[in-house]
UniProtKB/TrEMBL annotation:
Gene Ontology CC terms, in alphabetical order: cell outer membrane; efflux pump complex
Keyword Nucleus in record: no
Subcellular location: Cell outer membrane
Protein name: Outer membrane efflux protein
Source organism phylogeny: Bacteria, Pseudomonadati, Bacteroidota, Cytophagia, Cytophagales
Biased amino acid composition, Polar residues: 154-168
Coiled coil: 223-250
Amino acid composition bias (Low complexity), ranges on this chain: 169-213
GO molecular function per UniProt: efflux transmembrane transporter activity; porin activity
Length: 468
């Protein structure tokens, strides 16, 4: 069984509403739907009889006939196709409309995928901005902590006795604005400073001078290091915030609305597992994919056309009437005034030129073969995409687990390093390196979660169904 599906607790309804708006407003999707409606209108056209033919001829000089003078010749004829042709033509038009409908379905699910993908990318961007801001705040707290240690190291080096050093250390540990892990280390720093203060009172001012040279220099280096990272992170944050508008505009334009319109984004995405057997999922794709259904409809169209080529080689029948009006004509002192003549007529076409009908039959067979080959190729492509999507989904799942564990380990490491730094001022470079790793793991964790959502949206697009 393959575990598929990521859903958020509180965004589904909002996203479903966006999909509904996109389906109603997207101009490309409406164009495909109108193409389908236009194809439906061909069905009654294909099932209609040919128009009746009316021909009228009037004599400028009446034609003298035995029964009188003929004034005109009027014919009305209706042709009738061979039995079954009209029904077959309607069937062909219906299959062509079905192919148009499957094109509309393919466009709809492609639009759904694009809307979901844009929505997930916007959520990812907002999370990256939030995480970057949080890490920027933490780095600024590190900067204040490094400044306090730098100032404290200088103050400790000044007085010769340890009694004046202890209040400074106590003030740093209780009042400095540092993260929770650092404040625990700050308490340890106060104890360590008190101890070092007592030792300093015994060793004299020479030890204070040495502390000033070593601790002060390294403290200022720590401040500069953290400021470098702050500058880099501020630049990254500015780039992320500049990226918000293009993604927002793209999402709104899929819905065919104002690019600046507000978009509701979920507070968090939580995973919920949906179990799908691999082969069942592949069967769903090969049975429900709109492109395959469209090719199936085209294959049926050409099957009908093969039947049509046989029927078109049959005669067409026509039935009508010929009406000839007469006026009296004097002849040898007698008025020849015959009645108007009405003559029923029958017409029959004789399809004796068989080459074109044989060619129609061959054309339909070759087109049907081409569609079958195209369908086979499409199945191969969909299967390849299915394998790739499963690989990407499994990779995203592994990365989510990995970066979640790495994030926890980085936080634990950072807590220990902050305690060590707050105690004796060492390993500040390691603190910054681990903080950068933590930021990297947090961003990669968000990326892996979004990759799972987008991959599942792609599978839903292939299968033309919701994987829930």
């Amino acid at each position: 069984m393959l575990c598929l599906g990521l859903r958020s607790a509180g965004f589904s309804q909002s996203l479903e509403e966006y999909l509904k708006v996109a389906a109603e407003n997207n101009p490309e999707l409406k164009a495909y739907f109108n193409d389908y409606l236009a194809a439906l209108e061909k069905v009654p056209q294909a099932g209609a009889l040919p128009d009746p033919e009316l021909s009228m001829g009037f004599f400028i000089q009446p034609m003298e006939r035995f029964m009188g003078n003929q004034q005109a010749d009027i014919q009305l004829m209706q042709m009738f196709p061979w039995f079954g042709i009209l029904k077959t033509q309607k069937d062909e038009a219906g299959k062509m409309a079905l192919a148009r409908y499957e094109l509309f379905q393919e466009a709809k699910y492609r639009l759904y995928y694009q809307v979901k993908s844009s929505w997930y990318q916007l959520y990812k961007l907002e999370e990256e901005i939030r995480i970057t801001k949080e890490n920027l705040d933490i780095l600024r707290q590190y900067e204040r902590l490094a400044l306090i240690r730098f100032q404290t190291s200088g103050t400790q080096a000044g007085p010769a006795s340890g009694s004046s050093t202890r209040p400074e250390a106590s003030s740093m540990s209780s009042n400095s604005p540092v993260p929770s892990t650092a404040s625990m280390g700050g308490m340890s720093a106060g104890v360590s400073s008190s101890t070092s203060g007592k030792t300093g009172s015994k060793t004299g001012s020479s030890m204070g001078t040495s502390a000033s040279m070593s601790g002060g220099g390294s403290g200022m280096t720590d401040v500069l290091r953290v400021r470098i990272q702050i500058k880099e992170l501020e630049n990254t944050l500015a780039l992320l915030e500049d990226s918000r508008q293009p993604i927002k505009a793209e999402f709104n334009l899929w819905l065919n609305r104002d690019p600046n319109e507000q978009i509701n984004i979920a507070d968090s995405l939580s995973a919920s597992l949906v179990s799908w057997e691999r082969q069942v999922l592949l069967d769903s794709i090969t049975q429900n994919n709109p492109m395959l259904k469209m090719l199936d409809a085209e294959e049926q169209v050409y099957e009908v056309q093969k039947k049509m080529s046989l029927l078109e080689g049959r005669p067409m029948l026509g039935a009508g009437v010929n009406y000839m009006p007469f006026t009296p004509r004097p002849d040898n002192g007698m008025n020849m005034a015959g009645n108007d003549m009405v003559m029923p007529m029958v017409k029959l076409t004789i399809p004796i030129y068989r080459k074109k009908y044989n060619a129609l039959q061959k054309e339909a067979e070759l087109k049907q073969l081409a569609v079958q080959q195209r369908k086979e190729n499409t199945v191969n492509q969909l299967t390849t995409q299915w394998y790739a999507a499963l690989r990407d989904l499994e990779d995203a799942r592994r990365r989510t687990k990995l970066y979640s564990e790495q994030t926890d380990l980085a936080r634990q490491t950072l807590s220990l390093l902050m305690t060590s730094y707050a105690t004796d001022g060492r390993d500040f470079e390691d603190v910054l390196a681990v903080q950068q790793q933590l930021l990297d793991y947090q961003l990669k964790l968000i990326t892996s979660i979004i990759d799972q959502h987008i991959t599942i949206a792609g599978l839903e697009n292939l299968a033309a169904t919701e994987l829930n």
